[in-house]
C-alpha cells in the first residue's frame, strides 16, 4: 500500500483529469505520435546490418555484463563513437545509455560551485534534473528570448567581475528543437551572444538530428563552438545518446559523470544498431527519394494545409517534425485526441502538468512515411472537432 499522502497525490491527478497511464498503441492507427521521424525503428536494412556488425566484431553477446569502466566497454563502442564523431566533425563522442542519462551526467558533473547555468524556461526535464544535481546556481530565461538571455548574461558577468572571473564559468543551455513546441531559437545569434560574454553553450539536439540532416548545429557550422547532445531514440530509431565535443570533455565525463560510471553499459546489439542507423542515414541521404527528403516534403505540405484549412492560429510556428495545437484544458484536449483515435489517427494529447496549465495541446509528429492524404485528413478531422 502507498502512504496516504502519496495516494492523495494520485487522487489529485485523477481529479485534474491528468492521471498518466501506460497504454499499448493501436497498430492499425496512422502514426502521428511517435518520434520515429524517418521510420528507422522498423527499417529491415538497419536491423540486418546490426546483426552483420555483431558477427563482424565477434560480439554475439546478450549484454555488456558491467559498466563501461569495468567489463562493459566492448570494442564496438570505440568504433561507433569514432564514426559518430566523424559524421558530426567533432573531436570526440561519448555514448550514454539514454538522453536522460547524458543530460543528467553532464549537468550533474560539469558546472561547479560558483558557476552559473542559464537555461531556457522550456528546457527538457532531464536537463532540469541534472541542474538540480549541480552545485552551480541556475536561472531561467524567457523561451527563445535572446534579449532576456543577454540581460542575464550581462548581470552574471558583472557579478563575476567582483570575484576571480577566471575561477567561475557561465553555461547557457537550450534545445535546437523543443520537444513540446517544435520551435527553435536563433542558434547562430545565441552562440555569438554567449561568446561575447565568454559563456559556454550546450545544445540539446534530440529532436533535430535526422529531421535537419545531422542536426541544426552542423547545418550552421557551429560544431566546434558548442557542446551538444544527440539522441538515437527519435529519428535514428534505436536507443541511447551521445555527448559531442572536445576530447578533453569526453575524458572529464568518463571520470566524473555518475550516470555513465555507475550503470551497466548498453549491450553490443544496441551499439551495433546505433552504428547501423548512422551508416544507413549517411547512405540514404544521397538517394533522390530518401526518408529525409520525404520528411521535409511532409513538413512543407503540413504547413500549407494548416493555412488552407485555417488552422494556423491554433498552432505554434514550427519548421520541425513536431507541430502543436494549443487547446487549453485537459478534458478538452483529451476528448479531441480520443475522437481522432476513433477515426484511426494516433495523435497524443499533452496535458498539464507536463506543460503549464492553459497550454495543453495536441502534439502532431510528422514522419517520412505519412502520406499527404493522411495529413490532409487528420487536419480536416481536427477542424470538425474544433467546431
Largest sheet, spatial ordering of strands: 2-8-7-6-5-3-4
Count up the domains. 2
CATH architecture of the largest domain: 3-Layer(aba) Sandwich
End-to-end gap: 45 Å
Described by the principal axes of the CA atoms, the overall outline is: globular
Uncertain spans:
none
Gyration radius from CA atoms, angstroms: 22 Å
**Strand percent estimate:** 5-15%
What is the CATH top level name of the largest domain? Alpha Beta
Q: Helical amount among residues, as a percent range?
A: 40-55%
Task: Name the average pLDDT.
Answer: 95
Beta strand count: 12
| SSE string | HEHHEHEHEHEHEHEEHHHHEHEEEH
What structural class is derived from the secondary structure elements? alpha/beta
Biggest beta sheet attributes: 7 strands, mixed
CATH topology of the largest domain: Aspartate Aminotransferase, domain 2
CATH superfamily of the largest domain: Type I PLP-dependent aspartate aminotransferase-like (Major domain)
**Count of helix runs:** 14
Family: Belongs to the class-II pyridoxal-phosphate-dependent aminotransferase family. BioF subfamily.
Keywords: Pyridoxal phosphate, Transferase
Pfam families: Aminotran_1_2
Domain Aminotransferase class I/classII large: 28-378
Amino acid at each position: 500500500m502507498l502512504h496516504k499522502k502519496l495516494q492523495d497525490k494520485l487522487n489529485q491527478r485523477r481529479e485534474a483529469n491528468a492521471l498518466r497511464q501506460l497504454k499499448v498503441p493501436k497498430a492499425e492507427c496512422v502514426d502521428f505520435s511517435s518520434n520515429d521521424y524517418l521510420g528507422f525503428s522498423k527499417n529491415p536494412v538497419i536491423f540486418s546490418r546490426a546483426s552483420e556488425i555483431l558477427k563482424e566484431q565477434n560480439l554475439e553477446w546478450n549484454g555488456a555484463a558491467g559498466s563501461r569502466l569495468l567489463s562493459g566497454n566492448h570494442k564496438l563502442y570505440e568504433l561507433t563513437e569514432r564514426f559518430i564523431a566523424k559524421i558530426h566533425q567533432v573531436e570526440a563522442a561519448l555514448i550514454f545509455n539514454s538522453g536522460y542519462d547524458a543530460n543528467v551526467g553532464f549537468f550533474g558533473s560539469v558546472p561547479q560551485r560558483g558557476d552559473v547555468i542559464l537555461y531556457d524556461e522550456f528546457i527538457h526535464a532531464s536537463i532540469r534534473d541534472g541542474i538540480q544535481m549541480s552545485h552551480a546556481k541556475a536561472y531561467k530565461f524567457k523561451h527563445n528570448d535572446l534579449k532576456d538571455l543577454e540581460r542575464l548574461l550581462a548581470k552574471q558577468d558583472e557579478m563575476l567581475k567582483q570575484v576571480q572571473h577566471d575561477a567561475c564559468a557561465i553555461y547557457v543551455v537550450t534545445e535546437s528543437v523543443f520537444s513540446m513546441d517544435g520551435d527553435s531559437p536563433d542558434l547562430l545569434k545565441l552562440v555569438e551572444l554567449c561568446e561575447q560574454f565568454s559563456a559556454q553553450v550546450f545544445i540539446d539536439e534530440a529532436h533535430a538530428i535526422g529531421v535537419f540532416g545531422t542536426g541544426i548545429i552542423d547545418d550552421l557550422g557551429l560544431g566546434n563552438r558548442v557542446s551538444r547532445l544527440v539522441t538515437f531514440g527519435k529519428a535514428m530509431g534505436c536507443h541511447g545518446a551521445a555527448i559531442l565535443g572536445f576530447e578533453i570533455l569526453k575524458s572529464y565525463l568518463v571520470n566524473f559523470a555518475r550516470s555513465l560510471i555507475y550503470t551497466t553499459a548498453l549491450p553490443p546489439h544496441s551499439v551495433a544498431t546505433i552504428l547501423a542507423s548512422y551508416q544507413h542515414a549517411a547512405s540514404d541521404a544521397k538517394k533522390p527519394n530518401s526518408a529525409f527528403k520525404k520528411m521535409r516534403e511532409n513538413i512543407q505540405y503540413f504547413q500549407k494545409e494548416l493555412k488552407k484549412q485555417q488552422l494556423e492560429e491554433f498552432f505554434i510556428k514550427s519548421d520541425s517534425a513536431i507541430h502543436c495545437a494549443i487547446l487549453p484544458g485537459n478534458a478538452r484536449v483529451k476528448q479531441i485526441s480520443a475522437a481522432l483515435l476513433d477515426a484511426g489517427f494516433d495523435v497524443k494529447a499533452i496535458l498539464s502538468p507536463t506543460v503549464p496549465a492553459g497550454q495543453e495541446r495536441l502534439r502532431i509528429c510528422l514522419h517520412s512515411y505519412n502520406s499527404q492524404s493522411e495529413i490532409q485528413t487528420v487536419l480536416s478531422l481536427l477542424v470538425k472537432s474544433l467546431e
